[in-house]
Amino acid sequence: MTSTKTTQLRRIRFSLWILVAAAVLALGGAYFVRMIGVREPPPVTVGEAAIRSEFSLIDHNGNRVTEADFLGHWQLVFFGFTHCPDVCPTTLAYLANVLDRLGGEVERVAPIFITVDPSRDTPQVMAAYVQAFHPKLVGLTGSESEVAAAAQSFRVYYERMEEATAPDGYLMAHAGHIYLMRPEGRFEDVFREGEQSAEEMAADVLARMNGKQ
Q1: Which one is predicted more confidently, 37 or 67?
Q2: Based on the domain organization, do 105 and 168 belong to the same domain?
Q3: Which whole number is the average pLDDT over 35-47?
Q4: pLDDT above 60 (res 22)
Q5: Residues with Cβ within 8 Å of residue 16, at least 6 apart in sequence
Q6: What's the confidence (pLDDT) of residue 50?
Q7: Is pLDDT at 5 greater than 60 in this prediction?
């Protein structure tokens, strides 16, 4: 066999392995988040542009907003839904605790909750929900396509799951990460409730905001 043919075969085998690995990761990721009590790994980024703050949505006051409305603020972004039975209320209560620990620096932060269930989470529903956690928390919703585009920009997984015992017969499986985005909208870091105390996360955020980390 010539060296050229050998090289071609190696390239074909490598391409097939890439396809198989991608399929396994996709199936494994979906299974991971469906398992109760099992937490999916943090998002993997490739380059600074992999995760970015880009969206056009409706805030809980009924106003159209984009990422440009939050420029100059450090964004803390979490995706979830108001009918979420556990992860969302727990994470938002944790985030509210973090915000309270930022002191006066909290004015430099825009905490954002983006729904993955826009058919039920209208601006009115979002307003009542976010106000129950923290006065600075901004709730965002929109059309199915607008929410999908926002989730894609943050590389957030979510999926509707039929569940007979749930309200309206379904739940939304979704990732549970809190994204820290820089004032210009670039990705800085990702956090998760339960992996550090609210005090530790607040200290970490403050250090990054003040260029000490």
Answers
A1: 67
A2: yes
A3: 44
A4: no
A5: none
A6: 87
A7: no
Q: What is the CA radius of gyration of the chain?
A: 20
Task: Based on the fold, state whether residues 146 and 64 are members of the same structural domain.
Answer: yes
Q: Say if residue 76 is in the same domain as residue 138.
A: yes
Contact present, 105 and 209 (Cβ < 8 Å) = yes
- In whole angstroms, give the CA distance from residue 142 to residue 148: 10
The answer to whether residue 72 sits within a structural domain is yes
Phi, psi of 146 (to 5 degrees): -70, -40
C-alpha closest to that of 119 among 153, 170, 164, 64: 170
Contacts of 52 (CB under 8 A, 6+ apart): 153, 154, 185, 186, 187
Domain-located, residue 7: yes
φ, ψ of residue 38 to 5 degrees: the values are: -105, 130
The one-letter amino acid code at 81 reads F
Does the pTM of the predicted model rise above 0.70? yes
Q: How confident is the model at residue 49 (pLDDT cuts 50, 70, 90)?
A: low
Domain containing residue 198 = 56-209
Q: Domain check: are 111 and 195 in the same one?
A: yes
Same domain membership, residue 88 and residue 19 = no
pLDDT band, residue 58 (cuts 50/70/90): very high
Sequence-distant (≥ 6) Cβ neighbours of residue 93 within 8 angstroms: 133
Give the mean pLDDT of 144-148.
98
**Average pLDDT of the chain to the nearest whole number:** 84
- How distant, in Å, are the alpha carbons of 46, 96, 184, 203 from that of 16? 21, 47, 39, 45
CA separation for the pair 190, 139 (Å, rounded): 19
